[in-house]
Specification:
27 strands, Immunoglobulin-like, Jelly Rolls, 5 helices, mainly beta, 2 domains, globular, seven-stranded antiparallel sheet
Amino acid sequence: MLFKHKSLWLQMLTLMVLVSSCKKEKENEDLMGWVSSANSSVAEIFASDVDETKTLMLSVTKGGIQDFATTITFQAAPEALDSLNRATNANYVLLPESCYSIEKSGVSLPEGQKTGAGILTYNPHKIAQLQPARYVLPVSFRSSGMMVNPDKSRIIYAFSVDKLGNVIFEDNFEQTSAIPDPNKWSLCDPGTSDWNRYLSKSYDHVYVDKGMLVLKAEIKDGKYQTSGLESRNKFSFQYGKVEVRAKFTKTAKGGWPAIWLMPQTGKYPGGWPYGGEIDIMEQLNHEKIVHHTVHSHFTNILGNKTPEVTATSPIVADDFNVYGMKWNAEEIVFMVNGRETFRYKNLHLPDEAEKKQWPFDVPFYVIFDYAVGGPDTWPGLILDSELPAKMEIDWIRVSH
């Protein structure tokens, strides 16, 4: 369950510890049958700072040719911490026992039953009281009647304690009206750029439904209708952290959803790209990655690509992801699900006034949109049969 209105959040990543095994051993395992962790390599959970217990399922599954009855026993494996820190060159800290409990440490899998699960509970409030760090809880399991797959014999839960600063802007879209809060948002105006040429001025394409902001792109009466919402002239900020929890409900060939920032002020004359643009997230077509990019006179007009101006990051397809950005006078840091993905630094050029490498020293406002491409555009041609396409936004939060 996701708790909104939170001033602190925890991120949990599930990581597999891989143990090499020779081909002959693997062939024997396939013949005899084996038990593996069934958890995905990356999973996320977000919880507010509330004093209530949360549950994680310690799932295992049988594989191989033969199937025997077996009993699985789960236990904490603190001895894995040292090897994890060496392998990742990190400084993880073992999660204190007071913060968790393996409530169901044993599970029986009779012959013919392929899956089962133990139960791990943890208290996010207790974890939140710890000093900011990366806390890990390695969990291993033993099997009485079948071999354990050495490549998937251990799960490591990593909890990040990230205390947010003062929240200066927030929208959870928990309202009865289908129209987004007019004190915070306005519809984007249509224009001649690739992203706004088909923008609709109707709330049929940008609306709130069941606690979600929905942005839709469709073809209607032979015309493309896309969506855009912005906080221009209502909210802007200079430096801080912005996070948006969003999901691509339905993608399409030629689809182009985005979450981005544009300058509120006219400090840098000449229009785009002189004043800068920060693309927190752009997704194309059916891609399972997102793009992060910065635009400026330095990057777009002068063509400078050092430092790197763009990067991509994998996402959890068909599910919600949290897209984030930390911004200060020295750098812009992009994130997906709490993990840093890309940095763009202020070079403090001696001829900055001429080259405008860092126009990111003024307030910027927020834009959500779902555009479509077309000939000679970045997303490419549109496949009409795959429309409508939608993006849902659960919440946005900006903090200092």
